Amino acid sequence: MKTVKVVAAIIRNHDKIFATQRGYGEFKDGWEFPGGKIEEGETPEHALIREIREELDTVISVGERMDCIEYDYPAFHLSMECFWAEVVSGDLILKEHEAAKWLSRDELDSVDWLPADLELIEKIKGKL
After folding, report:
1. Are strands 16-22 and 58-72 parallel, antiparallel or unpaired?
2. pTM of the predicted model as reported, rounded to 2 decimal places
3. Residue 113 gets which letter from DSSP?
4. What's the CA gap between 9 and 17, in Å, rounded?
């Protein structure tokens, strides 16, 4: 099975987390933490900064590594490095996503998370 290596930003603003809804592809309409594929020669942190700049026109600072989620989708294995992040500059403009929300701890279960992202929710609740 093919492995896809990606990064995800858990963008935090005080007690809220930024979630995005996919606007394309097989998992369209599912909610996820923004990020994307790690390119050849990139560190996960640099990939995350690049992806958020491309997808959300925003500069972030990458903080502590939260987890690495290993998840088997039917067509591929996902290896997702997840980091806490904060907005440095920009307005989180949606270029690829359908929608976005800032979610409090109590609202984290209010969206339909993609399976791999769902594995992070309980861990995030423990940190908020």
Report:
1. unpaired
2. 0.93
3. B
4. 10
Token pair of 68, please? 């690495």
Of 113, 65, 111, 60, the C-alpha closest to 88 is 60
Give the tens place of pLDDT for each residue, 60-119: 999 999 999 999 999 999 999 999 999 999 999 999 899 999 999 999 999 999 999 998
* C-alpha torsion angle, residues 116, 33, 28, 57 (rounded to 10): -150
Nearest to 127 by CA among 41, 21, 16: 16
Higher-confidence residue of 126 and 9: namely: 9
Longest dimension (CA), the chain: 39
Q: To which residue do tokens 């806490």 refer?
A: 84
